[in-house]
Amino acid sequence: MLTAGAAAVCIGPGGVGRWQALENRTFLEQCVNRGVPVIPVLLPGVDRVPEDLPFLQNLHHVLFATHMTEKAALDQLVWGITGHR
Prior knowledge:
It is a single chain. The mean pLDDT is 90. The protein has one domain. It has a three-stranded parallel β-sheet with strand order 1-2-3. The chain starts with 6 loop residues before the first strand and ends with a helix. By secondary structure, it is α/β, with parallel strands linked by helices. The protein has helices spanning 18-34, 54-57, 71-82, and strands at 7-11, 38-42, 62-63.
């Protein structure tokens, strides 16, 4: 985390538990304090950022609608991490 240029938060259909939600909030706070972009990554089976993760809802997300090899989603993720299209 100390040298990360970006951070991805993967969200699957199982959702996030209470402890994971707390960890995510702490993680996001550290990212904001360090100026590290955060990218919510919606895995297959998830079509939006869950309501119990309000701190991620206003961020641009990457959606893997059906499988993890979707080129458009991978390209978006690479762009979010590297800043290069």
